[in-house]
Write a structure and sequence with these properties.
CATH topology of the largest domain: Hypothetical protein af1432
Structural class: alpha+beta
Number of helices: 18
Mean pLDDT: 84
Number of strands: 15
Strand content: 5-15%
Distance between the termini: 66 Å
Largest sheet: 7 strands, antiparallel
CATH class of the largest domain: Mainly Alpha
Low-confidence stretches: 269-276, 357-363
Length: 537
């Protein structure tokens, strides 16, 4: 079996294991999240159901309380309604959901009626009273025992056989009034409740990312996010509830029109509660569709950015392993070659130092002194030990580029002309490129390229200034100049320590870092001793 075939087999197994674990984890996390959402919406549906039941009970008790008042019985017996009118006006003002209160005779004809118009309860004149004996709710009321109250279905209010505009869904609660002496039915008290008031209360319980639906026994929507789709049985619109809109899937999850929902059956044993057979609370389709929509396993995983990210990372990791596996030997060879080049460069450095010593016994130790001085200052600055060691090791390479500079220019006793000076300055880039080819050390490259830069930005070759110049280059720049001042050169005699020191201080803030000049002054005695000692070696 070839290495590539083995790699492909291992990669396939690796991907299968990783993606299986990832898929199981993502599906479990989604189930936890969906269960939490399902629990939240079930609580919302339960809260709405409780409010509906509480409202029904409260309204029933309210009607039954007034039906038991002797004032109502007296009004039906006497035909005098002024006291009852005053009482009911106060009730309707206090409770805006009651939009009509009326008394019916035993046959279902209105004998007294208060209606709310413009927010004010008003009594209708006798000529405006209607015969409601043929209305379904009156027929149902007449069949109910006098000991029980009656509640109608929710439908749109009608006056004189025409649906009231604007549409007002009402719920009618009534109870028969009997003569306390004879037990005969004298009539009925009926309240009409504006269901919109109740639905507004329900809406306040529902968060913005949920929607409420209530369906009655006719399969029409009493509550729907779109008002024009309500009461289609009476308004002849086309939208009705269908059983296919509700789906009961695994984990007891309910979906309404493909969105996570909760369903409450509002039917009681006696009659529908608020005449609705179902209450549904569903998440809006735009709310967390990855969690609130019934998705297949493949759809869940394909929509997960994390799943694709894990797959991509796994593929990249596998590709990286493949690359490493195939090129390991080449990398080892490259490292061995680099180590050999390091040794070669160290030998070249040593050779250059010896050449300097052989060419000029007066200045031959310059590179060694620059290395020593650089270490002295770096240690005093508290630099990292590795950086101190690198500065000491590579400071001697600061002028390595001069191996390509003509001897006539290097040894010229007088001032260089402009053309010669341009050739001389090229030693910086030449040395920098040489070290880059060897990939020796960033510290070495910084020293070679930056030791002729000036603090004021007037140096070369990059003309950088201040702390943009690497610290190792700033150190070597100062000590290189100091040692050159104290050494004999073809163009100058050796200066004394005091004169060299004065020149260094004069160039503080110009050629050199002012703080490094302060350190140099602080280490004056160390420089004197080391200069004397190194000059004798």
């Amino acid at each position: 079996m070839s290495r590539m075939t083995l790699y492909l087999a291992v990669t396939a197994v690796f991907l299968a294991v990783v993606m299986t674990i990832t898929s199981i984890t993502l599906l479990n996390q989604r189930n936890v999240s969906v269960n939490a959402l399902s629990s939240d919406i079930a609580k919302q549906a339960a809260a709405v159901s409780v409010l509906l039941k509480h409202t029904e009970t409260q309204n029933r008790q309210e009607l039954e309380y007034f039906a038991d008042l002797s004032l109502v019985q007296q009004a039906l017996l006497s035909g005098q309604y002024s006291q009852l009118e005053e009482l009911l006006r106060k009730l309707m003002k206090r409770k805006s959901s009651i939009v009509q209160s009326r008394l019916l005779d035993p046959q279902g004809r209105e004998v007294f009626k208060l209606v709310t118009r413009g927010g004010v309860p008003m009594r209708l004149a006798d000529i405006e009273l209607q015969d409601k004996s043929e209305r379904y709710y009156v027929k149902q009321l007449l069949d109910v025992p006098s000991t029980r109250s009656y509640m109608s279905a929710v439908d749109l209010n009608m006056d004189y056989g025409v649906v009231e505009v604007p549409y007002r869904p009402v719920l009618r609660i009534a109870q028969k009034i009997t003569n306390p002496n004879t037990g005969q039915v004298m009539g009925s008290l009926m309240f009409n409740y504006d269901v919109n008031v109740v639905f507004s209360q329900l809406s306040s319980l529902i968060p913005d990312h949920m929607q409420l639906y209530i369906v009655d026994y006719k399969n029409q929507f009493l509550a729907h996010p779109q008002p024009e789709l309500r009461y289609c049985a009476e308004l002849e619109c086309e939208l009705f509830f269908s059983a296919t809109q509700l789906s009961h899937l695994a984990h007891q999850r309910v979906y309404f029109d493909q969105s996570l929902a909760a369903e409450v059956n509002l039917d009681s044993a006696a009659r529908p509660v608020v005449s609705g057979s179902k209450l549904v609370v569903a998440y809006k389709p735009s709310y967390l569709p990855a969690l609130t929509q019934p998705l297949s396993t493949i759809a869940v995983l394909s929509r997960s950015m994390l799943w694709w990210a894990v797959l991509l990372v796994s593929l990249l990791l596998s590709a990286g392993v493949c690359y490493s596996y195939e090129h390991l030997q080449k990398q080892l060879d490259a490292r061995l070659q680099k180590a050999k080049m390091q040794k070669v460069l160290e030998s070249v450095t040593e050779m250059l130092e010896r050449l300097h010593e052989n060419d000029d016994p007066i200045t031959g130790s310059h590179v060694q002194r620059v290395s020593y001085y650089s270490r002295l200052m770096a240690e005093h600055l508290g630099l990292d030990k590795q950086l101190v060691d690198d500065i000491h090791q590579f400071a001697s390479l600061h002028d390595i580029g001069k191996i390509s500079t003509p001897d006539a220019i290097l040894g010229k006793p007088g001032k260089l002309d402009p053309q010669e000076w341009e050739v001389m300055k090229q030693h910086v880039d030449n040395g920098y490129q040489l070290l880059r080819d060897f990939e020796l050390s960033p510290v070495a490259e910084n020293i070679v390229r930056g030791h002729h830069e000036r603090w004021d930005g007037e140096g070369y070759p990059q003309k950088i200034a201040g702390e943009d110049i690497p610290i190792e280059a700033r150190i070597v720049s100062l000590v290189d100049c100091f040692d050159a001042l104290m050494s004999v050169r073809p163009y100058k005699p050796a200066f004394s320590f005091e004169k060299s020191k004065d020149i260094i201080n004069e160039l503080s803030g110009k050629a050199f870092d002012p703080y490094l000049v302060q350190v140099f002054n602080f280490l004056e005695n160390d420089f004197r001793k080391s200069r004397s000692k190194l000059s004798k070696t």
